[in-house]
Amino acid sequence: MKTLSKTRERFYCDRLRADVEKWCRECHACGARKGPKTRTKGRLQRYNVGAPFERMALDILGPLPVTTRGNRYVLVLMDYFTKWSADHEATGCTPAHMLFGRTLRLPCDILFGRPSDTPSSPNEYLNNLEARLESVHAFARERIKLASERMKTRYDSGATGHHFKEGDQVWMYNPKRRRGLSPKLQQNWEGPYTIVKKLNDVI
């Protein structure tokens, strides 16, 4: 440590190393301007879902070319359980089958027809639909669980766990590049902050 070496050239005390390390650790200017964060990753956190619309993902796509109505963004919503329009490896089913209990009709089915599966009564349809949905949801939950376990095993093979506890002081990496200012003089870290509450390993 350069600071320790320079200090030893001029001073002596029994706890010099500990004092210098404590001073450097608590120096706000040093902490805010230290180098980029080490490229490490924590362990994968799993969030399994068990029913349609239990958890949704939202994304904004754009900016895109402006339409005739003045729109340039697309709002994308995805259900974590049924996923997107095609068969998904994790569930083994299409979203339509998982949501409605049946395969959607295509234009060719309307044009050429398809075998009729119309039930004899509304009660029969309701009972059959409930049984189909329960079966396909149970099947999908098991598939999602297995796929999640495989993904976590692969991801965690190169991960390093960092465990924080309430009361720990931490720095947050938040680089802000400003024009006309050398990156050497910019503060890449904010803090230190004190952890007041821990909900899980990532929050």
UniProtKB/TrEMBL annotation:
Entry's Gene Ontology molecular function annotations: nucleic acid binding
Transmembrane segments: none
Integrase zinc-binding domain residues: 2-34
Gene3D superfamilies: Ribonuclease H-like superfamily/Ribonuclease H
Top-level division of the source organism's lineage: Eukaryota
PANTHER family reported for this sequence: ENDONUCLEASE-RELATED
Protein name as annotated: Integrase zinc-binding domain-containing protein
Species in which this protein is naturally found: Araneus ventricosus
